[in-house]
Specification:
Length: 466
């Protein structure tokens, strides 16, 4: 009697088993590639959280870490930005922009074209090049604007801030809603315009912040301050009644502006169900949902002159809230895509079962479960919120300290400010820790912070002032 081995080799089952092995190999390959984005980038994110920004930058810049040119540039750029390396941050952000430039150009021409680009099908969304959520692309240009400020290039700063706001308008047109977003872009644009001596343009940006309910007293007081220079006092009368008149200050006052990313932004998790149906077949339906992280620090405090003057930051952009709204608006499309794929994979399983019996059914079910995964890629190094504060001080020497309320403090040293000069502090809190970098002014060498060997500081850049 022939052995089972010989029987299988000589029977029609040989072809079935060969196909099953090939299909099994494909499924094995897919399983091997099913590590989530969070799992792939865990070590890089751990370095980022710990303040090892150069290590995080190098890890994220490696294409193997993210498998996404957009995220590689965005994540590495944020690590460099928080570490104070504005030149490297700009380069990485531009790498991310190069990946989505064509999509953005179409979005700025027509929101309909943007929608058609987003509704495309694949076996699994993670097999497609990731081009960012709409809000992430907006954030990319706002972050680029900060790098231009860090380099003292004011024109570049407002160009990037404007592009961020125009991309946001395209998203709003696509989903037919208005997000409570754009505060960071408008604030950066207004700041650049003020430093360029164009208060009228700055006034418009502050108005838009107020219209969107962003920036609160920060935007309101800017409008009250600028209105007399533009003969627009009547437009801000309600704000004066609510927030009070503009306080007296010397005409040659210097300005200190704190721009801060506070906390850690959200990440994506998978939500969905596997539905057994007739004959043992499985239909899989999944979508991504956002999960939030603990936020021990809610705001930052800029202290001057040993605490003689202090200003608290105001939220100008709620990244987590807007990210969730933007993703929720896409869920209908994502769910529809998942449902269509579920039907196609169901038909595939039926065909495999018809041709190969139980082996085909098993292979089809495995393929369905393995390949129907939510796309969990996301820009994870974004903050929970962007916040800002502004202080007006007499020209001269001022000691600067940034406190993370509920966390640690960092002293930036003593800075000498010229009349009408603007000094910008870019800060970031992660957990209870805070990092800050000053742009502009003249830091007195004797007061420079002592270098920390675990967290070396890059040389501070200078900002242009008109």
């Amino acid at each position: 009697m022939k052995s089972v081995h010989v029987l299988l080799r000589s029977s029609p089952l040989r072809a079935v088993h060969a196909r099953a092995r090939r299909f099994g190999a494909l499924c094995g390959f897919l399983v091997a590639g099913c590590a989530t984005y969070g799992e792939k980038t865990a070590l890089a994110y751990r370095d980022f959280e710990a303040g090892r920004f150069e290590e995080a930058r190098v890890a994220y810049a490696d294409p193997k870490t993210t498998d996404s040119p957009f995220l590689s540039g965005a994540e590495a750029g944020m690590a460099a930005l928080v570490g104070g390396d504005f030149e490297a941050a700009k380069g990485h952000f531009e790498t991310a922009y190069a990946e989505v430039r064509e999509l953005e150009d179409r979005a700025l021409v027509s929101a309909t074209d943007l929608g058609e680009s987003l509704v495309s099908f694949a076996i699994n969304d993670t097999f497609k090049a990731y081009q960012g959520e709409g809000f992430e692309r907006v954030m990319l240009h706002a972050c680029l604007a900060i790098t231009y400020l860090g380099r003292g290039e004011l024109e570049g700063a407002y160009v990037e801030a404007r592009r961020a706001n125009k991309l946001l308008e395209s998203e709003e047109a696509l989903y037919e809603k208005q997000y409570a977003a754009g505060g960071l872009g408008h604030f950066l644009s207004a700041l650049a315009y003020e430093m360029l001596g164009e208060p009228g343009e700055a006034f418009i940006d502050y108005q838009r912040m107020m219209q969107k309910g962003l920036g609160g007293d920060l935007a309101a007081r800017a409008l009250i301050r600028l209105a007399p220079r533009l003969d627009r006092e009547s437009e801000v009368a309600p704000l004066v009644e609510r927030f009070g008149p503009d306080p007296d200050r010397p005409d040659d006052s210097a300005t200190i502006v704190l721009i801060a990313g506070v906390g850690s932004g959200p990440y994506k998790q998978e939500a969905g169900i596997s539905i057994p149906i007739d004959g043992g077949k499985i239909v899989q339906w999944v979508v991504p949902v956002l999960a939030t992280r603990p936020q021990p620090v809610t705001s930052l405090l800029l202290r001057l002159g040993g605490g003689s003057q202090a200003v608290r930051t105001t939220v100008i952009e709620d990244v987590t809230k807007v990210s969730k709204e933007n993703l929720d608006d896409r869920i209908a499309w994502l769910a529809a895509k998942s449902a269509v794929r579920a039907v196609l994979k169901y038909k595939l399983t039926e065909k495999l079962e018809d041709e190969h019996g139980v082996l085909g059914l098993i292979a089809g079910d495995i393929f369905t479960v393995v390949t129907e995964r939510a796309d969990l890629r996301a820009w994870q190094t974004l903050p929970d919120t962007w916040q800002a504060a502004r202080a007006f001080v007499p020209p001269g020497v001022h000691a600067l300290v940034v406190d993370a309320e509920g966390g640690e403090s960092v002293s930036l040293g003593d800075f000498e400010l010229a009349p009408n000069e603007t000094l910008i502090v870019v800060a970031r809190s992660i957990g209870t820790r805070v990092w800050a970098h000053a742009i502009g002014g003249h830091r007195l060498a004797a007061s420079a912070p002592e270098p920390n060997p675990e967290h070396p500081q890059t040389p501070e850049p200078t900002a242009a002032n008109p």
